Amino acid sequence: MTIKLLTFDLDDTLWDVESIVHRADAMMRDWIRAQHPGFVEKFDFRDFSGLREAVLRERPDIAHDFTQQRLEVLRRAFVQGGYTPAQAELAAQGAFAEFFRGRNTVEFFPGAVPALLELRRDFDLHALSNGTADIHRIGLGHVFSRHFSAISVGAAKPDPRMYLAALAAAGIAPAEAIHIGDHPQQDMAAAAAVGMNTIWLNRHGRSWPEGLLSPDAEFADFSELPALVWRLSSRS
Ligand SMILES: [Mg+2]
Questions:
Q1: How many structural domains does the chain have?
Q2: Which long-range contacts (CB under 8 A, 24 or more apart) does 143-149 make?
Q3: How far away, in angstroms, is 14 Cα from ligand 1 center?
Q4: Alpha-carbon distance 165 to 129, whole Å?
Q5: Ligand 1 centroid vs 145 CA: distance in angstroms?
Q6: If pLDDT is split at 50, 70 and 90, which confidence band does 235 have?
Q7: Are 65 and 140 found together in one domain?
């Protein structure tokens, strides 16, 4: 069967997410210090981790939604610092906007964008992410025809819903799609479980975890990806 759709994970597949979130968090804290100096006198930033644990514990309804989790932590922080709920809401939205600005300023892995542009000529491309990246702000709005996230489908990978949503939107069978991602469970095993082909980004030469069905192919550098896609496409 010919391959028609390529679905891509985003975080840690197209860019390193830890450094981006770390920098976005620092930008957000700088913004809070500059815009809310009175609050900073009363609130210790080290208390953020306790608030985060409380939100994770008390709000399982937003377990898949990192945006709502972060907003809820910020609201609680501002209330703890003496703000009324209305003031805290406004301040939380402002702080989050600054975080989101940093979160969507990414450094792509070498060769990632050229590979996407090349593949886009022959295949439909969807983005499938558990994270909160905004493909339009990042500059990939013209590359992906659709973007599914844990927030938009209401469940995070490895739950099959994101994969099924992409296949349904494209109107194709699972065997006509390849999922490309870095995570053995969330990306590779989950996509294989719904019947999709899989290509694993293994940048650091890790060995495949025991007990998981192996991916159909793997690569370490994006220059290798287009040829792998064509190989799977002609094989199937
Ligand atoms: Mg990832």
A1: 2
A2: 143/113, 143/116, 143/117, 144/8, 146/170
A3: 8
A4: 12
A5: 19
A6: low
A7: no
Ligand 1 centroid to Cα of residue 61, in Å, is 22
CB 69 within 8 A of CB 55: yes
Report yes or no: 43 and 129 within 8 Å, Cβ to Cβ: no
* pLDDT tens figures, 15-26: 999 999 999 999
Q: How many residues does the chain have?
A: 236
Do 143 and 44 belong together in one domain? no
Find, among 29, 70, 33, 39, the residue nearest to 52 by Cα. 70
What is the 72 CA–ligand 1 centroid distance (Å)?
A: 24
pLDDT one-digit tens code per residue, 53-98: 999 999 999 999 999 999 999 999 999 999 999 999 999 999 999 9
Residue 65: both structure tokens together: 């939604």
Instruction: Choose among 189, 163, 190, 187: nearest CA to 177.
Output: 163
Q: Which of 49, 69, 103 is the last residue of a domain?
A: 103
Alpha carbon of 236 to ligand 1 centroid (Å): 26
Please report the pLDDT score of residue 200 as a whole number. 98
Q: Is the pTM of this model over 0.85?
A: yes
pLDDT score of 201:
98
